[in-house]
Design a protein that fits this description.
Radius of gyration: 21 Å
CATH superfamily of the largest domain: Glycogen Phosphorylase B
CATH architecture of the largest domain: 3-Layer(aba) Sandwich
Structural class: alpha/beta
CATH class of the largest domain: Alpha Beta
Number of strands: 13
Number of domains: 2
Length: 370
């Protein structure tokens, strides 16, 4: 079969889908990738994918640009003539599905996360819900990465129940993210790995750090991830510079491989407002690191409170600070046990091979139906 994989960045394809792509290729399928060109696109073509560049801005909604995206994807699909299209992330899920439906091409969608559109009632959220309801009539299968999103879409009749299914996120490569021997830093180190936008709880993290420093807690606080000031909810560069210059946090920049940074941290933090299944937390748990995260969809699928980490309230810097203080106060045996529990949890629930197997089974069913 000729299979297209559509995402909002080539980086995303390369970092999270390559084992799946290799499995498809081993089974004789021709894999096409559709994503904006970036520094990782050449890795896809070198791996044998046929790449199609597309203009796609993940920073919010613009009706004119979004309509143009439908037309652009329609033209790519029409020329490519794939036997099946696999959509990931919000815009491919909605606009790519509509383009494919007009051409009669079967699609499989993956709801990686809902962003903030379902967090508050507004005209934008009302329109987004309507688009989901319209587009999600067409896919042969819609995978959800957590039960909260799955139940939300079913209860609001945004997707037919018979086409919906659950996946353990994008899964985690257990061989790549191996458990690390626990060794406590002389100065306890918290690491937040995320794009620097408000939805990830960056502002609450900063406020929590200020609270802890005011109480005299001796710890290091680090941020690792891309700055994105052009995003609608991005944090401005001068604000980040002030945090660094005032000694609130250490900014570590970006990386192609987070493993060495995870290894040097005592605890991984993610105070996000909502997730699909956060890759950062899967990587941390798989590496046997304890976690502090918000008690929200996606995060509380990965973190079980007082088992492999601590959960705090969303948008509550005081509670976040309390949980971070508690984490820093645990003895080595407790921290080691939390890390081991996290590894056990991802081994039993989030193995990438489960995700790949479900996709292969779905593709086989499409092949039989064609």
């Amino acid at each position: 079969m000729k299979i297209a994989i559509v995402l909002n960045t080539s980086w995303n394809v390369y970092n999270f889908r390559m084992n799946f792509i290799r499995e498809l290729q081993q089974q004789g399928h021709e894999v096409h990738t559709v994503a904006p060109k970036d520094d990782y696109t050449h890795f896809l073509t070198e791996a044998g994918c046929i790449h199609h560049d597309v203009k796609m801005d993940s920073r919010g909604a613009n009706p004119i640009k979004d309509f143009g995206l439908i037309i652009e994807l329609w033209a790519i699909y029409r020329k490519m003539k794939p036997d099946a299209i696999l959509h990931y992330t919000i815009k491919p899920n909605v606009y790519g599905t509509l383009a494919a439906a007009w051409l009669g091409i079967p699609t499989v969608n993956n709801v990686c996360g809902l962003g903030t559109v379902f967090l508050k009632e507004s005209v934008v959220s009302w329109v987004a819900v309507g688009l989901y309801k319209w587009a999600f009539r067409y896919p042969k299968k819609v995978f959800f990465q957590n039960t909260d999103d799955y139940n939300l879409f079913i209860s609001r009749r945004l997707v037919p129940a018979q086409t919906a299914d659950l996946l353990p996120g994008s899964g985690i490569d257990l061989d790549k993210f191996k458990p690390m021997d626990y060794k406590r830093n002389d100065t306890f180190t918290f690491l937040l790995i995320s794009r620097l936008i408000t939805d990830k709880g960056i502002l609450e993290f900063i406020e929590a750090v200020k609270n802890l420093k005011a109480k005299g807690i001796k710890a290091r606080f680090q941020l690792l991830g891309a700055k994105d000031p052009e995003h609608k909810r991005g944090i401005q560069l001068n604000t980040i510079d002030q945090w660094v210059n005032n000694g609130v946090v250490e900014y570590l920049g970006t990386t192609n491989d987070v493993r060495s940074f995870i290894a040097k941290a005592d605890c991984i933090v993610l105070p996000s407002y909502r997730e699909g299944t956060p890759r950062t937390l899967l990587e941390a748990a798989s590496s046997a690191k304890p976690i502090v995260a918000t008690d929200v969809p996606g995060c509380h699928q990965v973190v079980t409170h007082e088992y492999n980490g601590l959960l705090c309230k969303m948008k509550d810097a005081t509670d976040l600070a309390n949980k971070m203080e508690a984490m820093a106060g645990f003895d080595d045996a407790t921290l080691r046990a939390m890390g081991q529990h996290g590894r056990m949890k991802v081994e039993s629930q989030f193995d990438e091979r489960v995700v790949i197997r479900k996709y292969i089974e779905t593709i086989q069913s499409l092949e039989k139906a064609s």
